[in-house]
Amino acid sequence: MAVPKLTLDMTVDEALARWPELGGVFLRRRMACPGCAMAPFERLSDVARSYRLSPARWLRELRAGLREAGR
Given CA atoms 71, 8, 58, 45 in this order, what sign does their dihedral have? Predict the structure, then answer.
């Protein structure tokens, strides 16, 4: 079975279900995404756009959060 790779095409719910420790990255930025009703539908790229973040930087930040958590 292939290990899922964190991508901007994943929904917030998909990413948090696979890597719950990503919740800390959202919380550090004061984002409500982990509890948002749109989390099952909103992709990580949508989050970047909504919060006016560079998609590439946002992905690096999420991946850094995984590294910090030992993933």
Answer: negative
pLDDT of residue 29: 94
- H helix runs in the chain, sequence order: 12-18, 23-28, 44-50, 55-68
pLDDT per residue as tens digits for the range 21-69: 999 999 999 999 999 999 999 999 999 999 999 999 999 999 999 988 8
Q: Are 13 and 60 in contact (CB under 8 A)?
A: no
Q: What residue type is 4 in one-letter code?
A: P
Please state, in angstroms and as integers, the Cα–Cα distance from residue 50 to each residue in 6, 29, 34, 57, following that order. Answer: 19, 13, 14, 14
In angstroms, rounded to a whole number, what is the distance separating the alpha carbons of residues 68 and 53? 21
Query: What is the domain partition of the chain in residue ranges?
Result: 12-68
